Amino acid sequence: MKTNPIITAYSLIMMLFLLGPLLAFLPISFSSASFLSYPLPGYSLQWYEKVLQPRPWMFALWNSLIVGSLSTALATVLGTAAAFGLTRKNFRGSGLVLALIISPMIVPVVVTAV
Fold this sequence. Notes:
Layout: H1 5-25, H2 46-51, H3 54-88, H4 94-113
């Protein structure tokens, strides 16, 4: 299968756009300075050591993983049930239920437009 060179170029530009901030700030994470600056005065793993301390970052990471896992499980169950319910049965108010379900995808665009 042959790829379109314009699509390939667009994809590469988008990947660079999305990864650019990461490529810019990754070297700073190895800085030995006490604040963020270029050029790097030296190399150190001090920032990774601070993040991996038990308090407060690992506690926050653990909380985020718990909340994220529970949210994912709940959203999967509710989304699957809603999808089955909306496709299997035509009931009065199904359009309203569908609008309510997809409103979180629409609202950010409307807010941005305003």
